Amino acid sequence: MTIRIQKLRENAKLPAYQSPMAAGADLCAAIDAPLTLFPMDRALVPTGIAAQPDSDDCVLVIAARSGLAVKKGVTLSNGIGIVDADYRGEIGVGLVNLGKDAVTIEPGERIAQLLVMPVLRAQFTEADTLDETERGAGGFGHTGTK
Predict the structure, then answer these.
(1) DSSP string of 82-129?
(2) Is 145 a residue whose pLDDT tops 60?
């Protein structure tokens, strides 16, 4: 799989894997000055790159960096980011500070991970009924009550 990356800002960095078996490539903040996120602040942080996968059957998924999330309380504001194969604009990372202290993001700092995932497209058809299962319509936490 090849992903063509276009740098849109001078300080942009290509996504990079940090170990030979890493699933996610790090995305870096393409900002000109430090950005401070106070508790519950949100920001859309530019990466300075646009991407073009060589296949229409994949999606780029943006995930939080565990170090930022666990150590500093900074995670993705939307939980997970999706970059469709036909999107050609700058990739931005929505961050939120869920911690108790202000956190400063430095220019070039690793802020998220980029994963390449296959996409399966389903056909959705309307049905009058669905097959019965043991769980049925049991909601959140239903399977852990036994």
Answers:
(1) EE-TT--S--EEEEEE-SSS-EEEPTT-EEEEEEEEE--PPPP---S-
(2) no
